[in-house]
Amino acid sequence: MNKFDNYSKDDYLKLYDKSLDELIKISNEITKSNFDNKVEACSIISAKTGACNENCKYCSQSKHNHAEIECHPLLDIETVKKAAISAQKNGATRFCIVTSGRVPNNQDFEKIIEMIKTVASIDGIHCCASLGLLSEKQIKRIKEAGVERYNHNINTSENYHKNICTTHNYQDRVNTVRLIKKHGIEACCGVIIGMGESREDRIDMALELKKINPKTVPVNILNPIKGTALENYQNKITEEEVLKTICIFRIILPNTMLRYAGGRTTRLSKQNQKKGIEAGINSLLVGNYLTTSGSTSNEDKKMLNELNLIMK
Description:
By secondary structure, this protein is α/β, with parallel strands linked by helices. The chain is 40% helix and 15% strand. It has eleven helices and ten strands. Strand 1, helix 3 (77-89) and strand 2 form a beta-alpha-beta unit.
């Protein structure tokens, strides 16, 4: 237990008033006291892209938006297997199968089960998945097939959720994560910052995650995509504000892996990406994201080496 455990929401908000250097010093000490110098590497594949009926304003895959992306139905199992092997060669130890949509249809779900079994059978790869709002029966089946960790983000605060999505509610997301944990699957549950939310909303996100207690928290920075409802949100958050938020997440979540996810290569300079790692990021999404480009494994390894950290 540390002194920050007893902080109120107002106390956490006051941390934003500290200088960035001071905040990084505090959060870096917390990270070093709870973790070693290894940074987890995860890679993802968009196994099914686009044509989603949900109306999430940030998402290029939503039918309600008009982003120009290449949509495709569920990939074949061999393509996904090859991608997992390639990710492993590039340093990833985790590989996540991601599909668009609220939930897979029955035909796709059966194929995904076989896909999971195939990826989980690869030596040295931990199979993860992100398949939407699954039922309890479906969660049991992906667990049996080999999913070790499941990604389902809260994305924003409960208060701000209605401004981002109305086709499902905030509690739907929280309930899904709780079901995942109930059945012995590790939870990967994160956020998207820079969607117009307030500092109070960001504190609420972190405090909700503290209650959920996931294994990993992906920190996405909104990458405004042309054709989405948030395409003009480029200036909704500064790089310094992103870094301060990472620090505060680390302070509130001292024992949780914080993962750099979408937006870090487009919204943060190389120097500030390194500062984010100093602040508490100790997991990386390597390679490309769902519909946008990321960094190469060599670039990430070089950055980590400069910080005396290694990719695991």
